[in-house]
Specification:
With 148 residues, the protein is of the alpha+beta class. Helix 2 packs across helix 3. The N and C termini lie far apart (39 Å).
Length: 148
């Protein structure tokens, strides 16, 4: 089974600036400090680009995980997609959309996930709420780093 969810973040910063912050490995590491997330292979600092990969090491749910993601689509400053190419999920796809509306940047995160072991119930009750919180925390850090 596959689960999807969306997180919408509004910010009074330029769409280009927030887009670039969203591709920053350093900003991602800062936003995931609680889980001790580190970039250990591929692009490990600076901005990641189309076709490039990063391997993350992090602790979630008390376990250490490694996940390699690739930027599979990039249309600056409107959209990019990162997808797991190796790691703990059967499916992990994160689409990042950016637009300007009423003088603000609207950043929309659409995540599609499939648990490796547990079914849709575990995804809905555990993984989706957990990942939704992580994305909101990450976005708060990105917005601050973008100039607020």
């Amino acid at each position: 089974m596959v689960s999807s969810f969306t997180v919408v973040t509004r910010a009074p910063v330029s769409v280009e600036r927030l887009f670039d912050q969203s591709l920053s490995i350093d900003a991602h590491i800062e936003s995931m400090a609680r889980s001790g997330e580190r970039a250990i292979a591929g692009v490990t600092s600076g901005r990641i680009g189309l076709g490039e990969t990063v391997t993350w090491s992090a602790r979630h749910f008390g376990w250490r995980f490694r996940m390699t993601s690739e930027i599979t689509a990039l249309d600056r400053p409107r959209r990019f997609v990162d997808e797991q190419v190796r790691g703990p999920f059967r499916v992990f796809r994160h689409e990042h959309r950016f637009e300007t509306h009423d003088g603000q940047t609207v950043m929309t995160d659409v995540l599609t996930i499939a648990s490796p072991v547990f079914g849709r119930l575990a995804e809905r009750l555990v993984l989706v709420p957990y990942l939704r919180r992580l994305i909101r925390q990450r976005n708060d850090v990105l917005v601050r780093a973008a100039g607020i």
